[in-house]
Amino acid sequence: MSASGFGGVSAYDFEGKEAWHRDLGKINHMFGNAVSPVLHGDLCILNFGPDEKARLVALNKKNGEPPGKSSRPKPGRK
Predict the structure, then answer these.
(1) Is the peptide bond preceding residue 73 cis, with omega within 30 degrees of 0?
(2) What confidence score (pLDDT) does residue 49 get?
(3) Does the pTM exceed 0.85?
(4) Mind listing the pLDDT tens digit for each residue in 23-67?
């Protein structure tokens, strides 16, 4: 799995062939973005940010489909 500041995450097989790619949108941050995805069970979990669209993203590690995602909490809200 790899994720980049170009707004995407990709999975590759052991021969180096891309298995799937998910475009998450462009990051607008002066330092860009690079993420180390975490694999847990059938999920690939990553922090997509650090701009105003920041969120936690979970993708099925076999096909890249999003089983769910969560928005960043807003300051002052419970």
Answers:
(1) no
(2) 74
(3) no
(4) 887 777 777 667 788 999 999 998 887 777 778 889 999 999 988
Contacts of 5-12 spanning 24+ positions with Cβ under 8 A: 5/29, 5/32, 5/33, 5/34, 9/35, 9/37, 9/44, 9/46, 9/57, 9/59, 9/64, 11/44, 11/61, 11/64
Whole-angstrom distance, CA of residue 61 vs CA of residue 52: 26
Two structure tokens written together for 69: 């995602």
Q: What value does the CA radius of gyration of the chain take, rounded to a whole number of Å?
A: 13
Angstrom CA distances, 66 to 29, 44, 49, 70, stand at 24, 9, 17, 11
